[in-house]
Hints:
- The protein is mainly alpha-helical.
- The chain has two helices and no strands.
- It has helices at residues 2-23, 26-34.
- It is rod-shaped, with a radius of gyration of 17 Å.
Amino acid sequence: MDDWQADGHRIDQEADNFAANLLMPLGDFRKQILNTVDFG
Length: 40
């Protein structure tokens, strides 16, 4: 019975990772955080 719970947790982690990369790819994220912000 615990096997399906472990598989479900793994699938949830994979889905979260997929959605995060789809919404904000790592390269794009790095490019955005490395730019300086001028509030002046």
